[in-house]
Amino acid sequence: MVLYARIPPLSSNFHARSACGERDVRGYNGLKPRLRYTVPAPMTRLFQFALQFTVLGLALAFVLVWFRPDLLPALDNAAAPAPDSYAEAVNRTAPAVVSIYTRTLVSEPLGMEFSDPLFSELYRDRVVTRPRQGLGSGVIISSDGLILTTLHVIANVDDILVALWDGRIAEASVVGADPGSDLALLRVELNELPVAPLSDNAGLRTGDVVLAIGNAYGLSHTVTQGIISATGRGHLNLAGHEDFIQTDTAINAGNSGGALINSHGEVVGINSAVLGQNTGAQGISFAIPAPVAQRVASQIIEYGQVRRGWIGADLADVTFNLSGQEGTQSGARITQIHQGGPAWRAGLRPGDVLVRADEQSVESARSLTQRIAGLEPGQEVEVEIIRGNQLFTTSVILMQQPPLHG
Questions:
Q1: What CATH superfamily is the domain 209-303?
Q2: To the nearest whole percent, how much of the chain has pLDDT over 90?
Q3: pLDDT digits (tens, 9 = 90+) for 241-270
Q4: Of the residues 75, 143, 269, 370, which has the maximum number of CB atoms within 10 A of its CB?
Q5: Cβ neighbours around 336 below 10 Å, total
Q6: Going by C-beta distance under 8 Å and a sequence separation of 6 or more, which residues neighbour residue 273?
Q7: Which residues are catalytic?
Q8: Does the domain made of 309-400 have the CATH classification 2.30.42.10?
């Protein structure tokens, strides 16, 4: 340890003795020299060693990154620049998107063709049968020919033709349908079919770029781009069970049943509906999430229908205050009950408020309905009920949901 003492100022007549003899401590210019402090030798060697070690480490790191750039930490996706093209994403999925053409024979009064009232009256009792054609899209989900599409594309039609990316055309048969989600499953007898990669939508976010691929106005494999505007949309009266992805992607006639893909080419949804311009809406479209479509297809294949739990009651949102607790709570009030159904058998009645189901709070009527629909028929659910000023618990054994008519 080096100690430095304070040195008193030198007087003008002070002389210092050195090895060369005596001389004044003043410099040659007549000024007093400044005191100089030197760094001890051990500290100098330590500093030089640290500097050399740092330079050597940086050089080694540079060499490693030069030959192995994958060692660099991944950049945040949010900060990544947008790609100049989505061609690779489209090329990954477009071959698995098909164009659907339907034909239906309809009977119409012959008199509707005439504008002249005399001819209309003369031929009003005569009927003519004509073919009515429709357009749609579909997504191949298995190499053995299974195709997902929307139910309203193929509902009540006589013939279904499917046109593939490579020019092949085949007649399709209906495997099954689910009016609750507006989905249908078709099959074609063809070999060497491309399969669309389905996403689990785990990281799907509002603002993500999406592209729609479909048979818009008969223009096969038309691609449009937009972003996700919202997820989990409901109360649209488009299907019995609604959990839509909302986008601003352009969806036109013939796009229904087509693929909604992300920037990696994975199918995140099946395009289903759009708010018409007659309502004043622009760029508001909806798609069925890919996980929902995958689950519906799997159950149609296994059971021939979608198995959904059903409580046998119509529910509405309600908020209330519990005595002794601050703030309001949410629940689902029974507005109508189906006699002989699960809720009726459990002793529930219109006006009862469901506040908990299987130890989970009821946030809304829609969330409870979706939760119950995701359970198997025959499963027992413990529910907590408020009736008047009483709070009690009972069990409801779910039934298979009755068929919905699309």
A1: Trypsin-like serine proteases (2.40.10.10)
A2: 51
A3: 778 999 999 999 999 999 999 999 999 999
A4: 269
A5: 10
A6: 236, 238, 244, 251, 256, 285, 286
A7: 152, 182, 256
A8: yes
